[in-house]
Amino acid sequence: MLPELKIAQLRHFVWVAELKGFHAAAEKAHRTQPAISLSIKDLENKLGESLFEKRNAKAANAELTPFGKHFMPQAKELIAHHDRIAQDMTLMANHKTGHLRLASVPSIASRMLPEILSKFIENAPDLHISFYDDNAGAVLNMVENQQVDFGIASLWHAHEHSDKTFTPIWEDQIGVVCRVDHPLARRKTLHWETLREHRLISNGTSRLLQDTEAEPLLGDSQFYISNMISLVAMLEAGMGITTLPWFAFPEESTKLKFIPLTSPSVIRQIGIVQMSNKSLTPAADSLVKFILEHAQQSE
């Protein structure tokens, strides 16, 4: 049976050898000299050989035996390997290293996450982050397939996702987006039936109208555009109107207008989505807590 070597005993051995004495090693270890002597003796018993020459009153310095000289670099290597692993695991537990994977719907990815992630990585310079930007359905699929540690999305029809945990964080209202010179742009609020008089473009968030009185609009849409950049281009060109959550509205556009849909009033909830039976990595758990704290401070 191989001996189980304790790191503390290896440190004591190296310190005695390098400092040339048990007393100096005891001071460095914040232990008594007898305690260091017992530690070295136990290590020698495990190895089956003496590490230091026998001392006498005239020999104050501790001298290594031939076996001790051979063991010295091995002991240092073991200590260094132990310390590297301990440091890596400590850093990972404190989300300062490792690899974090997350996915988010585009609206939160562009509106919220740039500030959140930039602050989060200030204390985690060695943390690698893979970030995926996609619609809610794709985000949920990535969570299910464990391609990401967690997702940020809305959980529509939550009863269909009993295997997931949803923590709501943000909410926004559904509205109508049209050109600033469109007849609807002069309105402050809108009823869903008013929209049927105009060309409708549906998109990835249009499903939020399901199970509401505005659901017939989904069948009225002449176009479906999934990509946000293309959708904005078509809206700015005057091809039609669409419904979008407020966070998804392109604020930088000078050609488009957002009008709240008040009949019905549809509110979208967005939050953290993760598998119920899977624990988060330390880095992912730290980011989730950081996002929650940031959201509370922003309220």
From TrEMBL:
SUPFAM superfamilies recorded: Periplasmic binding protein-like II, Winged helix' DNA-binding domain
GO CC annotation, single: cytosol
Domain HTH lysR-type: 5-65
Gene Ontology MF annotations: DNA binding; DNA-binding transcription factor activity
Keyword annotations: DNA-binding, Transcription, Transcription regulation
Short name of one Pfam family: HTH_1
Domain of life: Bacteria
Family the entry assigns: Belongs to the LysR transcriptional regulatory family.
Name this polypeptide is given: LysR family transcriptional regulator
